[in-house]
Amino acid sequence: MSENFERHAYDILIIGSGGAGLRAAVAAAEGGAKVAVLGKSLLGKAHTVMAEGGVAASLGNVDPADGWETHFYDTMRSGHFINNYKMVEVFAKEAPDRVLELEQWGAVFDRTPEGRIMQRPFGAHTFRRLAHVGDRTGMEIIRTMEQKILTVNVDVFQEITATKLFIDNGRVAGTVAYYREDGRFALFTAKAVVIATGGWGKAYKVTSNSWESTGDGAALAFRAGAELVDMEMVQFHPTGMVWPPGVRGLLVTEGVRGEGGLLRNSEGERFMEKYDPQRMELSSRDVVARSIYKEVQAGRGTPHGGAWLDITHKGPEYIKRKLPGMYQQFMALADVDITKTKFEVGPTIHYTMGGIKVDALTCATNVPGLFAAGECAGGLHGANRLGGNSLADILVFGKRAGDGALEFIQGHEGTPKVEEAEVQAEIERVLQPVGQESGENPYALHEQLQEIMANHAGISRNGPELEQGLQKMLELKERAKSMSAPGSRTFNPGWHSVHDVRNMITLCEAIIRGAIERKESRGAQWRLDHPDELEEYGKINFVHKMEDGEVKTYTSPVAEMTAELQELFQLGAAPGIAKSGKKE
Amino acid sequence: MAEEITLSVFRGDRSGGREQEYKIPAVPGMVVLDALHYIQAHQAPDLAVRWNCKAAHCGSCSAEINGSAKLLCKTRVDDYTDEVIHVRPMHTFPVIKDLVTDVSWNYEKLRQIPAFQPAIKAPFTLHQRDVDRIQEFRKCIECFLCQNICHVLRDHSAKDAYWGPRMMIRMAELQMHPLDTADRIDLLKGSAGIGYCNITKCCTVVCPQGINITDNGIIPLKERVADKYFDPLGGLVRKMHK
Fold it and tell me: How deeply is A254 buried, as exposed, middle or buried, from its count of CB atoms within 10 A (0-12, 13-18, 19+)?
């Protein structure tokens, strides 16, 4: 069987059309490269749209004492110091410029009384730092990027799924993809490829993530030889909806707490006083999520197993103005008026800190010509991500990945080749499940994968459960080899699911292996059998490589901060506080 | 609520199709999209439906439920007691398969709108009262339900003459940005065809974001067109007092 396929040749190929991918595309196109963006959804629908609370940048519009040093300090502390400090440094320094650039491109942020970009407080940020638009900041950013991309010379391919990266003499050479519309195939060759496909929160059942978050790009890069780092670090957002069941996991923005919302248990106790009396509701996400979990475990949960969140004291007018999406979400989906009554919330999977290991400055992976940015990349957030840092991440490192790819193609002659036979073999593999009536149901496997992850690698973990989980995941991996997708190639979600499930299984295996190896509790990794944070584990990251089709796990030393940066942690308080002489 | 729900879902492609019935167990709080997911997982794995966020942020899952243009993720199953829930694709756009339609025309039009051209470099000094009205328009999630329901596009297939409410709102947002310098009035009167809108407000009714498309967007744009073309002097006076 030989299948016809389209052929496209580009300088730089971006896989993923969320904020990071579009920002990379703008950078690459402005540098004069011929650029294509592939997205598995329609333009402007990517998971970026779901970010609500804001984008973190030390503009200092509300708290002038803020600066990059304090943003750096907060991010490192929140990541429990296993972050790639060089990434954090450029991130903290460049985030303000990236936000102002959005304003230049048409984003309309909420304003301060002086007419500058408004910034709100958020968990574990020392200062009011999150530029925002009500509770729909991600929507504003993806729309701005969509509108920007339409003005630059970039070819956008919508609803197209990349299934494999090709390598020529060790260098990335392109990808093959199929159009969801009719299942026809296309080969994209390129001199450099940027992966910007987001996270894999769909590996869990109770999740705030959209269907797209299946880790495709990270899995493709991994199979092509790229390393993954910090995979065990999966963030539970403390506040997802818990009732009714149809909406369980749906995000309740941290903005509710940022705007003054209070958490209470079934006894009316403001329980964060016990767990983090200083920062209370605005403690870091790992701490708040665990605190809610512990309250529920102790029998002090709400009727449906969560905590109460209460913002009624701010008054209906204020709530509807600052949190309009939340107000509507609860009215429409839960029949709850949050301006009049407290409501139930509980932890939900939100973000994957780990991902493709990249160079801090260029976003280059260990595979020549392959770059990664955004949630699919690891290193910036360490063991726990601060709210607002992901929107800043996609902007700062989206641009850096685009620039990095541009620099790479300028420094490397020639175009790598993809063998015809390799393309045909991949097409044959991808088509195999289509029209098959007998075989494993991808929807059922997805559900089982989610069960394994929830039961064996969830918010609380222990060695034996993780080991069992690994065995179950390996069994699932075998069964997944014979998935079927009855029906035709035309927009067949069952067929799309086959690829999603395969990719998630690959990444989940790495999550579990990392969680087994990290025999301590740090950030999002909470081991009941190793409850303490241990110094020796603060010096290493766990790195995974695919060797002969097997996932192998190694350790890699955490780079030591420069003396100058280390000093920022010896001031007795956050840098901005210490320097301004105010008390923390 | 009923323990079993009956859905009648359009199945077909460009060549045609018909509704097919599915019976599924009800779950409290279930939305129509959940029901379709159940059907996919247990009865029809190739049932095509576009969705992303399931949180009414992305605007992917637009369809027609018992004749009304709605988001599948925001429409609760228990809104329809004791009746079959009919789910059909948007009427105005060509069907690709089942509930998925070809909305590429909208992206073509978006590309033709002159982008934001600020007079100065950011950071801008803009007051909240100056941006309130454009922030309303920027709430748009591009679900294209307004395009689907606009009778100029829906009943008269006049896509070559009128670009539809979504494009009007995009242009309103740009025209009313205090710092924008581009002029889209000629475009509005010309190929974008604002004159075709006769203010029936169907678009405003279906907007899941509650944007006052007609009153706050299209009518003020019509006034600007009228000022420029039919009352140049009055328009100049009003502009000086803006």
Answer: buried
Pairing status of strand A5-15 against strand A35-38: parallel
Q: Cβ contacts (< 8 Å) between A50 and chain B: which residues? A: 53, 55, 57-58
Q: What are B20-46's pLDDT values in tens digits?
A: 999 999 998 899 999 999 999 999 999
Angstrom distance (rounded) from CA A338 to CA B48? 35
Domain ranges across chain B: 4-101, 104-240
> A1 pLDDT exceeds 80?
no
Q: At what angle do helices A68-78 and A85-104 cross, to 10 degrees?
A: 130
Return the closest-CA partner of residue B229 out of B201, B178, B189, B192.
B189
Omega of the bond leading into A244 within 30 degrees of 0 (cis)? yes
Q: Which domain holds residue A275?
A: 239-348
pLDDT of residue B101: 98
Q: Which CATH number fits domain B104-240: 1.10.1060.10, 3.30.2310.20, 2.10.70.10, 3.60.21.70?
A: 1.10.1060.10
Of the candidates A7, A10, A39, the one whose C-alpha atom is nearest the C-alpha of residue A369 is A10
- Chain A residues with CB-CB distance to B31 below 8 A: 246-247, 333
Residue A570 pLDDT exceeds 60: yes
Domain boundary among A511, A532, A553: A532
Model ipTM value = 0.95
According to the CATH classification, is domain B4-101 in 3.40.50.300? Answer: no
Q: What is the pLDDT of residues B72-126, one digit of tens each?
A: 999 999 999 878 999 999 999 999 999 999 999 999 999 999 999 999 999 999 9
Q: What percent of chain B has pLDDT over 90?
A: 87
- The answer for A159, left when phi > 0, alpha when psi is -120 to 50, beta otherwise, is left
Q: Are strands A228-229 and B16-25 parallel, antiparallel or unpaired?
A: unpaired
Q: Do A251 and B55 touch (CB under 8 A)?
A: yes
Residue A464 has pLDDT above 90, yes or no: yes
- Substitution target in A58, A61, A104 with the highest count of B β-carbons within 10 Å is A104
3-state secondary structure A58-107: CCCCCCCCCCHHHHHHHHHHHCCCCCCHHHHHHHHHHHHHHHHHHHHCCC
